[in-house]
Every structure is written in structure tokens, then in C-alpha cells.
Amino acid sequence: MKCIVRLCRNLLDEIHSDLRRRHAHALERVGFLYGRLARAGSLAIVVPFDYVPVPDEQYLLNSTVGAMIDADALFDAHQRTRSTGQCCLLVHSHGGSGGTWFSRTDVSTLKRIGPSLQRMAKNAAHGGLVLTSRTGACLVWLPDEKKPTRSAVSIVGFPLILDRGKFHVA
Amino acid sequence: MLPSNRFSRQGFLGLAAEETFATARIGIVGLGGGGSHLAQQLAHLGFLNFILYDGDAIEESNLNRLIGGTNIDVAVATPKVMIAERLIRSVAAPSVMIEQHQNAWQDNPAALRSCDLVFGCVDGYRQRWELQVMCRRFCIPYIDIGLDVTNAGDESPKMRGQVILTVPGGPCMRCIGFIDDENLGDEGRRYGDAGIHPQVVWANGVLASTAVGVAVDLLTGWTRTVPEKDVVYLSYDGNTGLVSPDKRLRYLKSQSCPHFRDNEVGEPIWQSL
């Protein structure tokens, strides 16, 4: 199944303004983006509507990757996903303005978080979204699918950005 | 993607324009006087993915404006979506993909949800509002075009039209004062009292061309301008031929929309009380 994430530009601006804030020891901030999953034939559509930053105190120092979020941050995301049935995407930014993709560390993190969130809300889509100033890339675990799907990303605003990654929706 | 020779005259739209047009999935609801112009122009520009909705077949009274319609089509009552498909295929690259629906979009809304941009060329405010709601729920920009001719007593009939682009997160058609409870409830009296749905080819052409220009700017950003209040509302005065920003935009106080809450997205959820 193909998937597209349609992200409103207002929400994208809100995310960027949070992720740009400096942290005492984390070089890169993350947050959780919640949304709903809809179907259009064989196309899955994720429409995010709420962004929740990870609080400063939930970043831990880590000798391998510098910093990582703690169990409380993950618990909160799992709890909300379970109680609402919403989609949950872990969001961070790579900076720059062109296309981007997840690092090896990102993918390894998502491979743990995606299926775990999937168990919390099995009818939603979960995974990660990595942003640049102009666009983003997304990897999601869709309902009943064990392997993640590379999702297209649309930034809905002025201008309308249609980032199809490696596939065409049609 | 490098611009092909086919589109060499529109290179100013940017290097990515051709690929964007080829990728974007366009929904057109209503393939009459306005929609047929849109279909033709979008095909010329290089759009390659179309979802078309219209439940009607062509009638003789449509021949004054329906682009692509012929006397033979009237004789055999060709569905309007088939005429539009024929028109698009006559211009577009062979790889064009067209999904036609000979029914109201509400009878098969899934295909419309998959669109990246929806054009509404429908009659009446209620239909427009329903399209607006669908587009908000699935985070799709919506472009509305419409034409109205009203009698003004002893004066000449007044021809007015509009092109509106609303984008999720920004003002909707209620915010800008185009749709309100009064015209939703009483549209039969106010809409088109100079005959049944008065339409003429030149005015449809002006509105459709303007809408296509708005869509191209949305997709390419070639003018490098962002609408001041995150919405485009252009009014057409058919008596003078002027297209200009509607004066109601001056009184729009907020760029946020109180009519659609952020979490009202995706499939509607029904709960028993």
C-alpha cells in the first residue's frame, strides 16, 4: 500500500520553531506528531494535526549518539496513541532545504518505536518524519504491515510542495 | 528533470514545474462550462493525473460553452466526463492517467481524497461548502470558480464571478464571507436569477484561466509571492471585464479559521450519545 503524509504549513512552521530551539546538551531536538489515518482506495493518507515537543528534561546524555529521549517521553507518546488511536510520528530535522532521508541511527530507532506504537493503535500509521526547511521524508508502519513504507510527503500551504520520494501516488 | 521541448515556452515556471505537474493529482468536480476549460488548460500545461466527476451528459443547452462538446455528442448524449477525457487525451502526453466518475463525488469520495488539489466547478453554495469540508478533512487545497448573472431592474444584468483558493490552516469560504448561513439556506433565490444557471463561454474562460494561474502559482511559487492573508479571493466583474482581489478580504481580521478545528481531519467519527 502507498502512503502520503499531508502536513499543513502552519503546523510545519510550529514544528520548525520548536526544533530550532537550543538544548543544553542535545544537538538535535525531536517531537511527536499526532494525526489520523484515512483511506482512499489503495492509498493511505496520514493527516497530522497536533505536535507535542519533548520537554528539555526528557533528553538523556548518551555516549553513542550524544543524546536521546528518555523512557518518560516514549511512555507519553505510547499512552496518547493507545488512548486516542491516533497516528504517531517521531519528528526531527536535518536542516538544509533539499531532499533528505533518515540516518542509520534514525532507522534503527524507528525500527523499535514504529512496531511498538503499532501495538498501541493497530489501525493507525506510526513511524518517523525527518524534515528540511522545505520538505521532508517519512517512514511509516501501516496497519497489518510488518515492513515500513516509505511515504510521500506533501507540505500543504503556499507553495504546495509535493515530495513523492521514489514513487508516484497515481 | 530537464524541461522537454514540449514545455520549453513555460520554462520560467522553474525546473521542477514539469515534474510537479506530471506528479500532481488533480480533481475536477463539474465538467461543464468552467470545468471543461480547466481540463483543457491543465492538459496543455502538462498535468498527467486527473480525477473527473460529473454525473451529467451533454445537452444542447451546453453547447454554448462546454469546451470539446460537439453536435454529435448531444445527439448521443455523451457523458461530460467522457468529453473531458477525450479533450485531455487530445492534448496531453500518452502517459496521462484519467479516472472518470459519472456520478456525484459524494457517491465515491475516496478518489477525490487522493487528490493533491481539487477544483470545484459546481452550482450553488451548498455544493461548494461540502467540497470545502471534504478538502479540509483531508488536507487538500481547494479552488472554487463560479459565475452568477443577476437582473438589476432597469439596469443591465450584472455578471459576477469568483475564483477562490483556500488552503487548510488558512481562512475558509465562510471566513472570507463568500458563504454564510443566509446564502446556504436561501441560495435558490440569490443564485442566478437571470435564468436557470446563466453561463457564457467567455466568462467561464476568464474564470477558469484565472483559476489555472492561481493553481500554477500554488504549485510552483513562480511569482515568489504568498497571498497576504493565506487565501486567494478574486472577483470578476463581467460587465467591466475586471478581475481584482475581493474587497471583503480587507475586512478579514484573522488568518486562522474558526470553522474547522485542527483535529477535525480524516474520516468523520460517529459516536452514539
Q: Report the strand count of chain B.
A: 8
Largest sheet of chain B: 8 strands, mixed
The run of helices and strands of chain B is HEHEHHEHEHEEHHHEE
Strand content of chain B: 15-25%
Please count the helical segments of chain A. 3
Low-pLDDT parts of chain A are none
What's the architecture of chain A in CATH terms?
A: 3-Layer(aba) Sandwich
Oligomer: heterodimer
Q: What gap, in angstroms, lies between the N and C termini of chain B?
A: 54 Å
Instruction: Indicate the radius of gyration of chain B in whole angstroms.
Output: 19 Å
> Order of strands across the widest beta sheet of chain A?
1-3-2-6-7-8-9
Q: What class, by secondary structure content of chain B?
A: alpha/beta
3D structure, described in words:
Chain A has helices at 9-19, 71-84, 104-120, and strands at 2-8, 30-40, 43-53, 59-62, 66-69, 87-93, 126-131, 136-141, 149-156, 161-163. Chain A has 170 residues and is an alpha/beta fold. Chain A has a single domain (2-163), classed as Cytidine Deaminase, domain 2 (3-Layer(aba) Sandwich), CATH 3.40.140. Chain B is built from nine helices and eight strands. Chain B has 273 residues and is α/β, with parallel strands linked by helices. In chain B, strand 7 (231-237) and strand 8 (242-245) form a beta hairpin. The chains are: A alpha/beta (170), B alpha/beta (273). At the A-B interface, strand 1, helix 1, strand 2 and strand 3 of A face helix 5 and helix 9 of B.
